[in-house]
Amino acid sequence: MSSTEEFGHALESRLHLLGLDRAEFADLVGVTQAAVSSWTGGRVKPRPETMRRIEEVLNRHEENTRDTAPRVDTDRDALTWYHRPAHRDGGRELGNAAAFAFDTDLAVLAREATQNSLDERFDESAPVRIRYTLHEITGTRLQEFLETLRWEEIEPHVESAAAPSNKVGRILQRGLADLRDGGRLLLLRIDDHNASGLTGPDYDDGRFSAVIRRQLDSRKASASAGGSYGLGKAVLWATSRLGLVLVNSELSEPHEGHRHNRMIGRLELPWRRTADGEWAGPAWFGEPDAERGGATRSWWADSDTARRLHLEREEGSPGTSFLIVGAHDPSGEAETLEEMHEALVTALATNFWASMVTETGGVPMLEASVTAVRDGEVLIEDQRVDPELAEPEMTRALRAYLDRRTTEDLTAKHDVAQVKVPLSVPPRKGEAGGSVPVHEAVLLVTPAEDGSAAPNRLVGMRANRMVVVDQKIPEMPLGAPPVQAVLLAGRAAGDPGADAAESFLRAAEPPEHNTWKRTDDLTSTYARGAASRINEFRRAWKEAVHRLIRQPESGEGDVPPALAGLLDLDPPPARRSPGYPHVKHVNGDVREDGSWRIQVDVQLPQRDDPWVVEPILRFATRSGPKPVVAWALEPVTNCDLSARGALIFEKGARRAVFVGTSDPSTHPVTANMAVVEVELRRVSEVAR
Amino acid sequence: MNNRLFPYPTLVGRSDLEIHEVRLDGMPLRRALISPGARVIALDRADRPDWEEVEVDLRLHTPTELRAGTWQEIRCYSSLFEGRTNSRSITQLGRASDDVWSGTVRAHHDDHHRRIELDALITATIQDEPGRIIGRATEAWTIDLEARTPARRNTVQTIRADFAAPDRPFLNPYREDPWMIEASGEEPVLYINTGFEGLDRLLRSNDRTTRDMVGAQISSDVWVALFNAAAAAVETDVDDQPIWPGGWRSSVLQRLLPDLFPEHSLDDALIEIHARREQGEGADLQARLLHAAGRQARLPKRLDVHIRNLAKKENS
Asked: Residue A424 pLDDT more than 80?
C-alpha cells in the first residue's frame, strides 16, 4: 500500500470513530467535499499545511467528544481496601523482595522515580516536569486524610505486621508510633507532567498494571529506556514507613473513555494475621470489582476526593502523581523536612544535571523542582534544580557539545575538547557476528575551575543522560592541570551503532544503574568476550583523557628522584613565630607637618636576655636600596630607649609597642608620595 | 607585608588573576602547559622554538570593596617583569563587568630570557595624584620560557653528563668524581657524572633508602658550595652595609640563613655573616653552615632511615 493510500484509510477510520461526516469535516478544514473524497479514496495526499489543519480539526473534535462523554465519578463511600488472602499452601512472604534488591535512600528514590518519568516522556518537543513536594500534616488535615483513606480498614493490618522480629516490622512500628504518638504524617508527593501516565487496563498488560499490580515487570516503551529491572517502583514503597503509596494519574490515552483522576492505592505489607483471617502481602484501595470477587480496581475520582487525599491534579497535563504516605529516608541520614529537601535537591542535581542541559535556547528533557510544606504553610519555596549550580564545568562541556562549539584540543580556559571513544559491541548470542558497526562514544573534556571541589571526575551516561558512571579519572599524571570529563554513549552520542551500544551498555548496568561492568545479564545475552569489550571501553576513555592532557616527555636535565625537592631555590615559607623580634603590625598616618607618625607592635620570642634592636624606617622603592629616614622613638609598652638610641625590650616580654615620628627634612620625597616600611635591626653581636 | 604603611586607603580583599588563553605567534597554547595551581605558563615548545611573540588573555577579578570605596578614577593594569633583563611593561585592562577586568598582554621573545613575572596592579587617583597603587594581584603568575611543564621550577639545574667527554673540557679534570657543582655563573649547575658507573641508575633506583641517602649527600654538598659562593658575592653600600647579591645567590642565602642564625631576621643575618667574614671568624660560620646544609638536604632524617633499614636487614 502506498503512503497516500495508507493516509486515506487512516483518515477514513478516524472520521468514522469520531462520527464526523465528510461534509462537516470539509467545512471545518475549509476545503471542498470532493477534496476530502480524493484523500479518503487514497488518490491524493494533502499538502503539508493542509495536513496540519486536518490534524488540528481532528484533535479538537476528539477532545470535544471526550468532554461530552458521560462520566460518573466513583462515589467516595464505595471505596474500600482489598487484602490478598494468604496462600492456601501456607507460604508466607515476610517482605517485598524487589524492595530489598538494593540499599535504598532518598537519592535512590530520586534516581529511580525520575528515571521512570524520563522514560515515559510524552511530547518529545517539551520537557518532562518533575516536582517533589514534602508535606507534613497534623490535626484536622491529618484526620481528613485518614478518614478518606479508610485508615480504620488497614490499621489492624499494619499493627499486626508491625512485629519487632524482622526489618519490615520494625520500620512499620516506627511509622505507627510517629502517627499515633507524634500525631503527624509526612507525605512525599512526586508529580510528573508531560509523561504518559498510567494507561492501560486494570489487570492486563499495560503501564497501569506494570506499576500497580506486578513485581519486577519492566514494561518500557522504548529501547532507550533507562531502567530495565522493574525494580524502580519498589523504592516508592520502601520509602514509606507504612508501606503505603497512593496514585493519581492523568492519562495520555483515554482508558474507558476517560483521562482525568485515575486513582488507586497500594499497601505493601508482609504476611499477617488479623481477626478476619490471614493475608498474603499487598492490598489495594479502590472501587470493588464485582467481576473479580471483591478485588479493588482503580477509580475515577472527583476533585474533592483527590484533594482530600492530597493528590489533586490539573486536567489536561498527562502524567502521574505518587503519594508516599509516612515518607522517610530509608538510610536514616536525612531526618528533618529541611534535610530531606536538601537530600532530594542534591540527588536530582547530581544524577540528572545533564538531562536538564540543552543547547542554547533549546528545550531540555527534564525540569525538576523540590518544595517543602508544613500543614499547608510553605516552608521552602519551590526550588528549581539548576544544573549549573550542581556541575558548572560539566554543564559547560555538555552545552558546548550541543551547541557544536567543541574543539579538538584544550587551549582556552573554557574550551571543551571533544574526542571519539570506540566501543565495539559484540553480537548477541545466536546472532551472526560482524554486522554491528563500532560505536563512537563522545568524550568531552574541559579544564576544571581553580579550587573546584572535586576535579578530575568522569561521568558517563546513555540516552536519558542520567549519570550512570561517576568516578575519578584513573592515573592522572602528577601535576597535570585539573579537568572534568563527560562521556556520552549509546543514543546520547548518536550513530554509528547508537541503538546497539545503548542496549549493550544497559545490559552492563547493575540494578542500581551506577556503573558499566560485567553483569549476569551481559554474559547471558551477549557472545563470549562481552565483559572484555566493557574493559576495553573503560581503558579507551582513560587513555583518551590522558592524551588530551599529556605533558611533554622529560629529558636530560631533569632532577633525579633522589634529589627531588632538595635543590629548590624558592624562599621557604615564612615561619609563624620567628626566632627574632619582628614587626607584628604597624598603624599610622601622615601629619599636617608632613611627618609620619607610626605605632609599631613588636612580637618577641621568649629569651632570658633582653632583646636590643634598632628600629629603622625606610621609604619603599620598587628596586634598589630603600632610603632610610630619621625618626624619633617613644617607648610605649615593655621597652626603653638605650643611651645610643636603640630600643631595649623588657626581659621575658612577648609583646612591645613603641611610637616613631619621622623627620620630614630627611624624607627623599613628600610623605604622601611613598610607602614606608619599618624594620627591626639587631644591634650586631660582633659589632657591639 | 604587615610592616608596610600606605599614606592612603588600599584594598584588603583578594584580587585574582586568571589566564584565559595563551597564544604563541597566534597559535593557542595547549591547556596542559598552563597550570592554575602553580600559576605557571610553560613556554618551552620543542615544536615551536623560534616563536616571536606570546599573547596572554587574562582577567582580573577585583573585590567588591573596590566599587564600594571612595576611590576615584580606578584603573587596572597587568605588568610583565623580568629581573634578569630588568624589563618591565604595563598593559591597561578594560572593565569587562563590575568586578572583572580583562585584556591581552604581549611579550616579545627577544626581550626576555627565562622567567617573566605576570602581575596586576589596581590604581586610583588619591588627593589629585593619579595612578597611585591601591592593590595588586593576590598571587602573580610566572611565564617560564624554559619550562616544558608548568610547575614552579625554581631549582638548581641538574645536568647529567659524561665528565670525560671531549665536548665538555671543563669537566675533564673531575672525570674521577661522581658529581661537580658549578657555582660561578649566572645559574648554578649540578653535574652528575654519567661516566661514574652505576651512579645515575642509583639516583633513579627503587631502593629508596640508599638512593635517598646518596641524594642527601649530593644535596648537602650543593648547598655548602652555593652558600660559600653566594656569601663571597655580598658587597657593601656606601654606608658599609651589606647588600643582597640578587638572583640565585639571594635565594640560596634566604634559604640557609634562618638555619644559620635562627635568632636573626634575614637582614640581620646577612649583616652577621658579612661581619664574621670581614673579621676572620669563619670557623664558627662553617660549623653553622654544615648544620644548615644538612637540614636543607634532610640528611639527618635520611641517614636515620638508612641506618634503621640496615639494622633490619642484619636482624632478619
From this structure: yes
